[in-house]
Amino acid sequence: MRILRLAAAFGILLYGLAASPAADPLPSWNDGPAKTAIVNFVHVTTDPSSPQFVPAEQRLATFDQDGTLWVEHPIYTQFMFVLSQIAAMAPQHPAWKTTPPFKAVLDRDEAAMVKFTQKDLVTLLATTSTGISMDAFHASAKAWIAQARDRRWKRHYNELIYQPMLEAMRYLRANGYKTYIVTGGGQEFVRAFSMETYGVPVDQVIGSTGETKFVEKNGQTELMKLPKLQLNNDKSGKPEDIYLFIGRKPQAAFGNSTGDQQMLEYAQSSPGAHLEMLVLHDDATREYAYGPAAGLPNTKVGTFTQNLYDYAKANGWIVISMKNDWKRIFSFDP
Amino acid sequence: MRILRLAAAFGILLYGLAASPAADPLPSWNDGPAKTAIVNFVHVTTDPSSPQFVPAEQRLATFDQDGTLWVEHPIYTQFMFVLSQIAAMAPQHPAWKTTPPFKAVLDRDEAAMVKFTQKDLVTLLATTSTGISMDAFHASAKAWIAQARDRRWKRHYNELIYQPMLEAMRYLRANGYKTYIVTGGGQEFVRAFSMETYGVPVDQVIGSTGETKFVEKNGQTELMKLPKLQLNNDKSGKPEDIYLFIGRKPQAAFGNSTGDQQMLEYAQSSPGAHLEMLVLHDDATREYAYGPAAGLPNTKVGTFTQNLYDYAKANGWIVISMKNDWKRIFSFDP
């Protein structure tokens, strides 16, 4: 009896838990090929008896951000941050009121902003990246993300993250995968909220970067931002920078545009099991519809071309239909 | 009695182990200010009751390699690797037999090699970094380190690592510190042996890098080396790249030359407790003696100037005397 009581207290309860059907790790996904692909991938790479088993210290999954983890349409969130920085700097620069491209920003002239050239964007980025320390930039981005809200949902931008992708990240991490964000956006911008938003620490954020300059004075040090591109973490830059930072191939890669194709090709060349997924924005009701399957022209952001769609299908990559594969899109959806 | 026997089997033995005096985590260090500084630093940053406690996920220590973790005198180990690559390529380049700087390398003409200019070195590095994939380069470095031996000790180069520093790394890791190698040497070269030599995984190696080019063909991908400097991880480059890769300051930094000064300044500006240590090569018998306190002129490698020595003393940095602070230098020392 005593033995039974001890067993009941320490053993059977645990056994009972283990024997009950496991909770669904991906509750915001509808049953279908996308959900099945993720679950199967985790199973074959983490079951020690599987021929495709990957040791825990080698498990690596990389995620694009804009359009893959959070909303990118109609305008990249980081660009909204740059606009706010320009507005904050404007009082010290009275000439901007009449000088393009600053004038359009200060007038909130969306028709003009949509027509911004690459040169205009570089001018704005360089302006907000000069004479500021990385610490000050980080603090400024952190403060902005805590207060700014988008216009459609009236939510903080980091509430507009896709709940199914967050579940996929957590599910992979619970199975020993190290999850990295690999974004064409600015590394420092994303680091300002990656931990609280995605549970991804700053040293697992790879992004585009500008050069910095180390300055020491009286025992205090500062890293100043320089308006000079260092890493262009887009297209081929993604696998190049993954190797630079991590030194090996991911087994799983998630993206949504031509900027992610090379990262997915890199995962695809992993020996053993690998997983490549592309988010297709085909849900005009709950989010947006753009790209080939939506029958809509590509916009400036999130270029999911017909070529990429055909390439994905030919290579066994999984195209995630937001409309069909996702039960809910945001955590606040019913 | 049964209870006692159970206790003896499971409890008391463990208690007995815990109650015995802890084994010295730094057995190759002599008692003195350097050893005391390391032990005190670990104590005040990891004791939860300490006002200078650092949460485990923020504990970070960075180590230079050449002259700090392994022998750099009289010539950097990586240069010996480059020489071997040139020799291996020579049969395809008959003209090298009469063309400087290749001729000196192939003739093993040390008098000429000592006089190599920066331009000569760049020529040799560029030659061995063109038309080779990162994977092939990694394999080649791995094969070389497994067979090449130095001339003084007749040992593999990665046996010529300083046992006291290895103990310091392990002691820091056992106390929750993440240890990074931050080297002016090539990142890919050091990654080829960092795990087996130091227990440092490839994604915790920050070094100088060249650009790479991603190539995809028939489902296979390759990253090709390009003969173009990307990150010059020396002097100010060290804190700049630490921030790029990790996103925060180290609390502890270890170096041995002017190339490490900025990294130590960066650690020094950490809030709370911090530790800066410089290895002084003052042991001509067991290793080498060069630098200010040894009364010897600086050589091309490992520039520990009198200025740096004075700066260290003025700033409370710890200068490690190899002669006095280290009981043994190599694991094979008596």
Overall 3D geometry of chain A? globular
Largest interface: A-B, 34 and 35 residues
Specify the structural class of chain A.
Answer: alpha/beta
Task: Please give the number of β-strands of chain A.
Answer: 7
Helical proportion of chain A, percent range: 25-40%
Oligomer: homodimer
What low-confidence regions of chain A span 5 or more consecutive residues with pLDDT below 50? 1-20
The largest pleated sheet of chain A is described as:
7 strands, mixed
- How large, in whole angstroms, is the Cα Rg of chain A? 22 Å
| Mean pLDDT over the full residue set of chain A | 90
Distance between the termini of chain A: 49 Å
Strand content of chain A: 15-25%
Order of strands across the biggest sheet of chain A?
A: 4-3-2-1-5-6-7
One letter per element, helices H and strands E, the order of chain A comes to HHEHHHHHHEHHEEHEHEHEH
Number of H/I helices of chain A: 14
